[in-house]
Specification:
Radius of gyration: 25 Å
Largest sheet: 7 strands, mixed
Number of helices: 16
CATH class of the largest domain: Alpha Beta
Shape: globular
CATH topology of the largest domain: Aspartate Aminotransferase, domain 2
Number of domains: 3
Strand content: 5-15%
Structural class: alpha/beta
Strand order of the largest sheet: 1-7-6-5-4-2-3
Length: 497
């Protein structure tokens, strides 16, 4: 029978709440105890380990139809998930640039899920806290309180927000109404040849295409060449394009290089175009007492992308897009819907936060950031950034002091690129050797680092973005890299030919 045609009393009502809250309470206490042990003992576990075949096969199980006891569900999690993490909370995880999380932030995520608010907007505490955390991010990087911002999933989305505002502002037409085909001249964006791949995705998504992003050569320190940038803008104007935005990078992914942000701000002003800063790696150096001068000029940007789940160590995921002109920001995304009309009082009597980005449904990301900042204070997070930069300098010193190792790029902030050397080996053999070192470090659970290619030279890459890392971990990395390098050379017979 059609449910709408049934008698109002003919159906049985159910809920997802437990029949016995006391059992759930007991298990929940055990889960919290296990979680504390998990973090407390993280240093004693492998950074990463391969899943056994039987564990991997378990993730091919069919959709569950019948219920299982919650305790059995949790047991599966403890056996099949918790022992096999990516590893980024471990003190010797340096593969990619991501934070190490923190227990208070994890509690914040739990409480946010319990409270259950949708941060599309409205007049409620979670929405007010969301805006407070955005205001705090403005303060950290020096934007005025009148600026706008929104919490998003991460840096890629934060950059899309900033670049969308730049497109709409510089298009010369109402691009939201008429589309990019209505623009008189194709727009051009400018970034260094070290720019993150998310910017290509952003310009493709904005309908401008990859060719709208002009990659400009960098200097010996991997910073954008200002003279080359100036020439590129002039060439594009002469060719009938419309220069729209300079993208400054505050910390490149490969080496951590920071563009001269003040020089870029000056040039953007001179050319009458936008200045956006991709600060997903280094923007928060602005709160580091010993190194904040490295990002001088970031406060002059029209928009900034940054990631609290990196150097604020918030659990994934939370990014932040900041825009100097609040009207331009809202104008890029807002639209009126009859079912979301504001009222003079009640739940709908506050601004709709979804009008500042692409998501209508938004999670309560702010609480985990808010709780950790309240507990520790921003000054401690600044000192931890300085600590990571000092650790990178220490690792650089260890590498330069050992003839078996070679620094592959200057260390600008907290990313160190190096490789193991052996006389007589070709570049391809060195690539194979260093790749094998990297894989064995991972497989033996010693450390997790990544590799990259810097100006045609393959190398290992250590991104120290971890509040648990100690100098002794870096000493171990150097010792184990050399041990493994020598072992591999002996096993393979690699050497002069």
């Amino acid at each position: 029978m059609d449910a709408l045609n049934q008698s109002p009393t003919a159906f049985k009502e159910e809920t997802l709440d437990p029949a016995d809250w006391s059992q759930v309470q007991a298990l929940s206490r055990r889960i919290v105890d296990d979680a504390i042990d998990y973090l407390r003992d993280v240093r004693e576990r492998p950074v990463w380990q391969e899943m056994p075949s039987e564990v991997r096969q378990a993730f091919d199980d069919a959709l569950p139809q019948a219920p299982s006891a919650l305790e059995d569900v949790y047991r599966e999690v403890t056996e099949k998930v918790m022992p096999y993490p990516m590893g980024n909370i471990h003190p010797r995880f340096w593969s990619w640039y991501m934070g190490a999380s923190n227990f208070t932030g994890a509690l914040g995520d739990f409480l946010a899920a319990i409270q259950g608010s949708n941060l599309g907007g409205g007049n409620h505490a979670a929405a007010a806290m969301d805006q407070q955390v955005v205001d705090w991010c403005k303060q950290m990087v020096g934007l005025p309180r009148s600026a706008s911002g929104t919490l998003v999933s991460g840096g890629s989305m934060a950059n899309i927000i900033g670049l969308t505002v730049a497109r709409n502002t510089m298009a010369g037409v109402d691009v939201r109404e008429h589309g990019v085909a209505a623009m008189e001249k194709p727009l051009r964006y400018y970034a260094s040849d070290q720019v993150h791949s998310c910017h290509r995705k952003a310009l493709e998504s904005l309908g401008l295409g990859n060719r709208a992003l002009r990659r400009v050569a960098t200097d010996q320190a991997f910073r954008i060449d200002i003279a080359a940038l100036r020439s590129a803008i002039a060439e594009d104007r002469a060719a009938g394009f419309a220069p729209a935005c300079i993208i400054g990078t505050a910390g490149t992914v490969n080496t951590g290089a920071i563009d001269d942000l003040n020089a870029l701000a000056d040039l953007a002003k001179e050319e009458g175009i936008r200045f956006h800063v991709d600060g997903c790696i280094g923007a928060l150096i602005a709160i580091a007492p010993e190194n904040k001068a490295l990002v001088s000029g970031i406060e002059r940007a029209d928009s900034i992308a940054l990631d609290p789940h990196k150097w604020l160590h918030a659990p994934f995921e939370v990014g932040c897009a900041l825009v100097r002109d609040a009207a331009e920001h809202r104008g890029a995304f807002a639209m009126s819907q009859e079912y979301l009309e504001m009222t003079s009082r009640g739940l709908a009597s506050a601004n709709w936060l979804h009008e500042y980005g692409l998501q209508t449904s938004r999670g309560f990301r702010a609480l985990k950031v808010w709780m950790a900042l309240k507990e520790h204070g921003v000054e401690k997070f600044g000192r931890l950034i300085d600590q990571n930069l000092a650790q990178a300098a220490y690792l650089t010193w260890l590498i330069e002091a050992d003839p078996a190792l070679e620094l592959a790029a200057p260390t600008s902030i907290n990313i160190v690129c190096f490789r193991f050397l052996r006389d007589g080996l070709s570049q391809e053999s060195l690539r194979e050797l260093n790749t094998e070192i990297m894989l064995r470090l991972q497989e033996e659970g010693i450390a997790s680092l990544s590799d990259t290619t810097v100006r045609g030279r393959h190398c290992l890459r250590v991104a120290i973005n971890n509040h648990r890392t100690r100098r002794e971990d870096l000493d171990l990395l150097v010792r184990e890299t050399i041990r493994l390098g020598n072992t591999i050379v002996t096993q393979t017979g690699a050497g002069p030919h």
